[in-house]
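User: I'm curious whether this sequence folds into something compact or stays loose and floppy. Could you predict its structure so I can see for myself?
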Amino acid sequence: MIIVSLKHALLGFLSFGPATGYELKHAFENSIQHFWNADLSQIYRTLESLKDEGFVTMRIEHQETKPPKHIYSLTESGRAELIRWLSEPTVELPTVRNPFLFKVFFGALLPKETVLEHLRRFDAALHERLEIYKQIQEYLPKRCREQGLRAHKPFLLATVRLGLRNLEVQQQWCRELISEIERL
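Assistant: Here's the prediction. I'll summarize afterward.
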């Protein structure tokens, strides 16, 4: 069984080039948030652990009017660990825990309007997330060119396209369910 960890996600992003914790958080938000998320405190704790393991180095860049930047870089042993992990085969379907689906499952216990309100809010959240993913899909090719990541482009875009399709299917399902419940 492959264990997905924040450690490997950070090593992956650092394989693109040095970055601060804040820049790494921004990278998560603008690329893989549909299948992996981390808050800033988790990122900094994990970066510290990666530094202790020798997988990353950290240098401090002083700034005149701002606090110093802590810039992390991937080491050769960090790259080797990332390649080792990426090379492990993955055939298991991910485990899903979705509190929203739990509420839908037991929806008959709620008034019809309450269930419809939950579904409408879910639909609105899906719409908002879809717009974000469309923006990511649009700017990603340019970003790959600017950062010298042309070889990564098809792989990065593939994950965004899957995120878009998942959201579109969920939105279609949600809207069909709303119509079905409205007819009850």
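Summary: The chain has seven helices and three strands. The longest helix spans residues 112-146.
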